[in-house]
Design a protein that fits this description.
Elements lengths: L3 H9 L2 H8 L6 H16 L7 H8 L1 H9 L3 H10 L3 H19 L10 H19 L3 H14 L4 H34 L6 H12 L2 H9 L1 H21 L10 E8 L7 H4 L5 H13 L2 E7 L15 E6 L7 H19 L4 E6 L5 E4 L7 H10 L8 H12 L8 E6 L8 H14 L3 E6 L13 E5 L10 H10 L1
Parallel strand pairs: 3-4, 3-6, 6-7, 7-8
Antiparallel strand pairs: 1-2, 4-5
Helix pairs in contact: 1-3, 1-7, 2-3, 2-7, 3-7, 4-5, 4-9, 5-10, 6-7, 6-10, 7-10, 8-9, 10-11, 10-13, 11-17, 13-16, 13-20, 16-20, 18-19
Amino acid sequence: MSSNGTRWKKVANDDSVRLVVGRPRHIPRRRREEIANILAQELVSSRQIVDVRRHAARHGAFHIMLRALKETPEWGRLKEMSLRSDILAILALRYVAGTIYDILDRTIELPTDTVAQQSFSGLVGLTLNTWRRKTGDELLAKGVDEVTAVDVRGEVPGMLRLAFKESLSPAVEELELYQQMIARMKEMLPKGGEEASMERALFEYLSKVDQFSELMRRNKEMQRIIDLMGKLDVEYGGASRETRSFATSEAYDIGPSKDVQHVVPVELLKLKVPILRTLFLSQMLEGQLLTYRLRGLDWSQEPEPERRGPVIALIDASGSMSGEPELIAKAFILMLARRMEREGRDVKVILFAAEDWKLELNLADKKMAAKSLLDTVCRHFEGNTDFNSALRTGLEVLSDKDYRGADVLFFTDGESKVTDEDLVKEWKDLRRRTGSRIFTLIVGSDQAGGLEELSDQTWILPTSTWDVEGSPSNLIRIIAEG
């Protein structure tokens, strides 16, 4: 995040803000830009008005509007969120600047029932006229004084606060939802993901109406996916092997060694006599001390983990997977990516459906992970299932030298069959040559469609409940442990 001294400039000059500023209005372009700059400074940094009279003379009606705006709860909430994120500040500025322009441009109609309200309406007209002519700033200062003088009951600030509340409340709700989504994305993605990349990816979604509406529709599904990931995470930890630390303890013989911890007591007597102490040290270095020999396995030190190869996940994205299987598949994809990152292993995730259709997800690429996540969550699973096409895709990936010997995972509901015998033969030959392991997880069905003939192991997973041993997390653990 930039320093406060430069952040407001970055926020004010964002392309999406400039689109709001650039929209033709009765307000001169230079004044629109100045208002946007002032609001950006107020949102993300501190801005002091040294000479109130001069500020009123320059900004007229906007001077009164800014004071009323800063007194609203909506402004306080928008400022609080803007301080946390450049993207949130940009979104907030778009809403606030647009509202200010609409009031000055009379797109938003304000009441004129009282003398004070009528006076403010006159000040708005005077402000626009003065700005267009670029003269008469002193008239604006007098206009501000007049509104203040007749508004003894504070009707104008109250009217403006109400207008801001009606216009900015939806903005506050949207930005709070945006924050929730960022928090959810952080829960879903591998831990190495950058928050700035997540924000930018989400911002791109928010800027497109169709993508934004789909994301809003999928909002509850995101939480369900997170809940499923949490279940997998608990099961992964609960079912994992416990690392125990203990030493061998059964003595069965005596012989020479340098194991001082298990030296025969009589050898320790040498340490009491100076000349024998030297002999003791010499025998220890040469491994000639009489020591107990112990029987059993020594697990006091955990072996160094060996470097394991990449993982290729072929995920069924056909229409028959819609509903709970689809949510489980998405949770599984994200959990697999997170776990393999922890293991230092690359993951290539490929969605497959109808013949020759596939979509590769870049969850291992930190810069692309957030976009791939949103594309995955918002994607409709549709079309038919074609195992033959999926197998061909797997063979293509395994032919890449970077993925030679990779573990391969099929995640499907089994609503297809392997019919190409040549493909089956190629897969079996490949397993024999490269040592690749192939796992199949069937969700919501008890049929594997011929994939069981190619697989080292096959799991059948109900869509509602499962135990730890039958859980997808068990499969993730097996793959992770090599």
